[in-house]
Write a structure and sequence with these properties.
Chains A, B: It catalyses: 5-phospho-alpha-D-ribose 1-diphosphate + nicotinate + ATP + H2O = nicotinate beta-D-ribonucleotide + ADP + phosphate + diphosphate. Chains A, B: InterPro entries: Aldolase_TIM, N/Namide_PRibTrfase, NAPRTase_N, Nic_PRibTrfase-Fam, Nic_PRibTrfase_pncB, Nicotinate_pribotase-like_C. Two copies of one chain form a homodimer. With 446 residues, chain A is α/β, with parallel strands linked by helices. Chain A has two domains: 250 residues, nicotinate phosphoribosyltransferase (Alpha-Beta Barrel), CATH 3.20.140; 169 residues, Aldolase class I (TIM Barrel, Alpha-Beta Barrel). Helices cover 42% and strands 17% of the residues of chain A. The first copy, chain A, is built from 17 helices and 19 strands. In chain A, the strands form four sheets. The first copy, chain A, has a seven-stranded antiparallel sheet. In chain A, α1 crosses α4 and α6 packs across α7.
C-alpha cells in the first residue's frame, strides 16, 4: 500500500482535520516558482504517475499499526485513515506541454485531509518527471536530426528513477532507452549492444565482434574504443566485411575527442564502402557537448545520453510548490517573504500564436480572446477520466511536445541565455489577490 | 520480478555468453573515478540495497515472454535466463565507511553472464546512495551540534528515491526523516508537524496553533512564517502560555533572513520565559547556508534539510564505474583515453592513524604493515553472509561513519577546497598493470 508514502506532517495535519470534522474541499495548486538558470521552458511530465499514485492511495493494516503504535496517532484517527481514499478532482496541464514559471501545472480539489496527504507524492512525481523531461528536451534541441537514446539507468537515483527517466526522456523525443523494464512498461524501444567488458572477455576485438555479430546479426553496434579507437574501427570493418553484413549496423565511440574520432571513423567506414554504417557517440554527454559536436559538424548519427540527462545534472530539481489556494468557499494565500502565493483556483490561458506569454487567471473566468486554456480535468471523484494506458500516454505526450516545440518562441528555445516567456496575472486574479492580501493584513487569511 | 531491471546491452552480452558456454567466473570492480568538485571524501552507502537486488534477481514468465517476443532473444537463451539467479560472491566496503577516488567499493565475482546482468542495478544503487550520503555528511559537518532532519521526500527523484535519501542521510548522522514509509522500513525517527496550509486552513494563526497543540501536545513545533514571522512567534508564545505547555516544543522558520529571524525569535521566546523552546530552520538549506548561519552564531537548534541534500544539488551523481578486472584466470583492463582501468581483483589497505592515503593492492596480497583491509566478504554463492536487517544495517553504518569521521584528516573534512586523500597503487598491482598493459599493446587483453 502507499498510505505511508507521505511526509509525517501531512499525516499530523490530516489527523487534526479529521478530528475536527474539517471536511470542506480544499484546492491546492502545484506550480514552479522560478525556472532554473539556463532553462527557457519546462516540459510538463509525470501526470500519469501522479494519477496512479492518487488512485492507489490507501493504508493497509500494517501501516495503520505503525501509525498507532510508533507514530502515536489515536484510535479514532487510525480508524478514519483506514477508510480514507483519494476522492477528489484533479485538473492538470497534459504531459508533454511546454510550461513556464508561476503557472499551475496541476490543481487538486478534495476534502482537505485527502488533499494534504497526497501532497508529498504528487509534488515529488511531477517535480522529478518535469525536471528530467525539461533537461531531455534541451538535449533534443541540441542534437538536431540525430537520434537520442537514454543511457541513464545505471546512475539514476535508484531503480524506479531509471524507469521515470526513460519515460520522461521519451516524452521529450528520445527514440529509445537502455532500461529494459521501462521499455516493457511504457512500450518504448529498448536499445543497447555491448560494453567494454564484452570486448575484454574475448582474446581480442575481432573475436568479440565476430561473436557478437554471429549472435545478433540484426543491427549490431560495435564498441570500438576499448584499446585504440581507429584500430577498433578497422577491426569492426574487417568483421563486417568477413561476415558479409549488409543490414543496418554501426560503431560506438565512448571516450576521447569525439569530434575528431567521428571524422576518422567516418573516413575508415566510407573507405571500406560502409556508407550505411552509423556512428553512435556516448560518454558524459549533455546538451552542451552535443551542441559543440554538432557545431563542429561531427558525423555522429545517434547519441547515447546518460547521467547528465538522467539526473538533470546542472539543475537536478525545480523550485516547485503545492500550495493551498482555497478552503471551503474562501480563497487563501501566504505572504512568506519570497514565497507569496496567488489565491484561488486558476487556469492558464495561452496564445496559440506565441506572440505573448501566458495569462494566469481564475479557473472560471472566460478565456481572453483567442487564447486556449491549458489545464483540463483529468480525475473526478478519485477516478481518472481516461483509463491508464502507459504506452499510449507517452505517445500522446510526445505528440504534444512536438507541437509545442514548433510553437515555442526562439528566445525560449535557446540553450544558452534563454528568455523564458513570462506569465502575467489576469485582472480578475489580480483583483482577488489584492483583496485577500488586504484581509490577511488585517489578521485573517480570507 | 527484477530481471528486466538492467540495460539491454547487459542482456545481449549475457545471451551471447550463455550461447557460447562462457561460464568462467568474472570479477567486476566498482569504483569512483574521481570525486566531484568540493568533495573531500565519500561515504559508502547502498550496499544492503544492492545485496537485496542481487538476491532477488530473476525473470518471471511475463518478462521472459517480452524478451522472446519483443526483444527477439532466441528460445535457448530465454530458457537459460529462466533458470538464472545470481550465484556469485561479493566483497565490499561496509556502509558508512569513508572512501576516496580510485578505490573499489565493491567487487563481484560470478559466472560472467550473471556478473554482467547485475551491473546496472548494483552500479545504480551504490552510486545513488553514496552520492546522497556524501552530501548529507557535508551538512552534518556544517551543522556542528545542531540536529538534522531529512525533509527531502517531496523533491527526490521519485517515491523510492525518497526512502533511499532518508536511509543515506541517516547513515551520515541525520536524526530523523519526514518520510513516513522510510521511517517504518528502516527504523528511523519520523519527524514533522505542520505546513503553511494548516495555518491557512484556520481563521488565524492563533486558532491554528491552538488546534494543533490540542491535538498533538507532545513536542509541537509551530510554523511561524506564514504571514509575518515575529507576529507568528508571538502568536505561538500566547498559545503556549495559554495552554500551559511545558514539555519539549519549538517554532519553525521557513523563509526570510534566517539568521536575523532566529535572533528575534530567540529573544521573543526567552522574553516569555520559553528558554526550552527550540528553533527549527528550513527552506532551501544546504551545507553552505548552514555553515554561514553557524558562523553568524544564529541560535538554531535543528535544521530541516530537503531538496539540496536529497538530490545532492551541486553534484547529483558520481563518476562511478563497474569494470571487468578478471575473467577466468586472466586479469584484464581497458585502455580507453581517460577511462583506463587497473586489472585484477583488489583490496584497499587503510592507515588507521590517518597519516597517509589508502593503498590499492591485489586482493590476495598481505596488508602493508599496520594497515587494515577495507573490503570484506558480504555475499557467497548468491546469499548474504548476514541476514537482512534494515534497521540494524543503518545503525551499524552510522556507527562506522561516526568512527571514520573522527579519523578523517582535517583537509578532507573541509567544506570548501577540501584535499581528498589520494590512493596509491601497491607495487604488486603496479607490476600487474604494467604487464597486462604491455600484453594488451601487443594485441591481446591478457
Amino acid at each position: 500500500m502507499t498510505g505511508l508514502r507521505t511526509d509525517l506532517y501531512e499525516l499530523r495535519m490530516a489527523a487534526s482535520y479529521l478530528r475536527r470534522d474539517m471536511v470542506a474541499p480544499a484546492t491546492f495548486s502545484l506550480f514552479v516558482r522560478r525556472l532554473p538558470p539556463r532553462r527557457g521552458f519546462l516540459v510538463a511530465a509525470g501526470l500519469a504517475e501522479a494519477l496512479a499514485f492518487l488512485e492507489g492511495f490507501a493504508f493497509d493494516d500494517d501501516e495503520l499499526g505503525y501509525l498507532r503504535d510508533v507514530v502515536g496517532l489515536d484510535q479514532p484517527t487510525v480508524a478514519a485513515l483506514a477508510g480514507l481514499r483519494f476522492t477528489g478532482d484533479v485538473r492538470a496541464v497534459p504531459e508533454g506541454r511546454v510550461v513556464f514559471a508561476d503557472e499551475p501545472l496541476l490543481e487538486v480539489t478534495a476534502p482537505i485531509a485527502e488533499a494534504q496527504l497526497v501532497e508529498t507524492g504528487v509534488l515529488n512525481l511531477l517535480t522529478f518527471h518535469t525536471t528530467v523531461a525539461s533537461k531531455a528536451a534541451r538535449c533534443r534541441l541540441a542534437a538536431g536530426d540525430a537520434e537520442l537514446v537514454d543511457f541513464a539507468f545505471r546512475r539514476t537515483h535508484g531503480i524506479e528513477a531509471g524507469a521515470g527517466v526513460a519515460r520522461a526522456s521519451a516524452i521529450a523525443g528520445f527514440a529509445a532507452t537502455s532500461d529494459v523494464e521501462a521499455a516493457w512498461r511504457y512500450g518504448l524501444q529498448p536499445s543497447g549492444t555491448m560494453a567494454h567488458s564484452y570486448v575484454e572477455a574475448f582474446p581480442d576485438e575481432r573475436a568479440a565482434f565476430r561473436a557478437f555479430a554471429a549472435d545478433f546479426p540484426t543491427n549490431p553496434v560495435f564498441l570500438v574504443d576499448t584499446y585504440d579507437t581507429p584500430a577498433g574501427v578497422r577491426a569492426a570493418v574487417e568483421v563486417i566485411t568477413e561476415l558479409g553484413l549488409t543490414g543496418p549496423l554501426g560503431v560506438r565511440l565512448d571516450s576521447g575527442d569525439l569530434a575528431a574520432l567521428a571524422e576518422q571513423t567516418r573516413a575508415i567506414l566510407d573507405g571500406a564502402g560502409l556508407t550505411q554504417a552509423k556512428i553512435v557517440a556516448s560518454g558524459s554527454l549533455d546538451e552542451d557537448v552535443i551542441a559543440a559536436l554538432v557545431a563542429k559538424g561531427a558525423p555522429i548519427d545517434a547519441y547515447g545520453i546518460g547521467t547528465r540527462m538522467g539526473v538533470s545534472f546542472d539543475a537536478p530539481s525545480l523550485d516547485s510548490a503545492y500550495k493551498l489556494v482555497a478552503f471551503g468557499d474562501r480563497p487563501v494565500l501566504k505572504l512568506s517573504p519570497g514565497k507569496a502565493t496567488l489565491p484561488g483556483p486558476k487556469q492558464v490561458f495561452r496564445d496559440p500564436a506565441g506572440a505573448s506569454g501566458d495569462v494566469v487567471g481564475l479557473r472560471d473566468e472566460p478565456p481572453p480572446a483567442g487564447r486556449e486554456p491549458l489545464l483540463v480535468p483529468v480525475m473526478r471523484g478519485g477516478r481518472r477520466l481516461e483509463p491508464a494506458d502507459p504506452a499510449g500516454e507517452v505517445r500522446a505526450a510526445r505528440r504534444r511536445f512536438d507541437a509545442d516545440l514548433a510553437w515555442l518562441p526562439e528566445g525560449a528555445r535557446r540553450l544558452a541565455d534563454p528568455t523564458p516567456l513570462t506569465a502575467t496575472v489576469s485582472p480578475g486574479l489580480a483583483e482577488l489577490r489584492d483583496r485577500v492580501t488586504a484581509q490577511a493584513g488585517r489578521g485573517g487569511a480570507y
